[in-house]
UniProtKB/TrEMBL annotation:
This is 8-oxo-dGTP diphosphatase. Its cofactor is Mg(2+). Residues 1-123 form the Nudix hydrolase domain. The keyword Hydrolase applies. It comes from Streptomyces cyaneogriseus subsp. noncyanogenus. The keyword rRNA processing does not apply. It catalyses: 8-oxo-dGTP + H2O = 8-oxo-dGMP + diphosphate + H(+).
Length: 129
């Protein structure tokens, strides 16, 4: 399964979201590309639909192989780093959003976030260890 997602860090905190179908599991904003849609196009569409924001200066950060938190299937995550143009507001299928620090958060995070994204952001200096 292919997924495009954004690492949006502001003031050392990472934006994570949860779906109404599983409100206790948090993951990065983004989603699956539609047929013929490039990862960056999918990311822009998903951020608009789910959070009402546009990514500013998105750039490819990494390709991550992990397991999809909700579906439990192998996932290839195309990870972009971006800022956003306005405060996000959960819409569409999203239930909640949170800004988390680099410390062990008190919420359940998707495997890709805990195993790959947070360590990558810490190594890059985007988030505190």
């Amino acid at each position: 399964m292919a997924v495009a997602a954004a690492a949006i860090v502001q003031e050392g905190r990472l934006l994570v979201v949860s779906k109404q179908a599983a409100p206790d599991v948090f993951y990065l904003p983004g989603g699956k590309p539609d047929a013929g849609e490039a990862p960056l196009e999918a990311l822009c569409r998903e951020l608009d639909e789910e959070l009402g924001v546009e990514p500013l200066q998105p750039r490819l950060l990494a390709h991550i192989d992990s397991v999809a938190a909700l579906e439990g299937v192998p996932m290839r995550l195309t990870l972009f780093e971006a800022r956003i143009d306005r405060p996000p507001r959960p819409a569409a299928e999203l239930a909640r959003l949170r800004w988390i620090s680099g410390e062990a958060p008190d919420i359940r995070l998707a495997p890709a976030v805990t195993d790959h994204v947070l360590p990558l952001l810490r190594r890059r200096g985007s988030m505190e260890p």
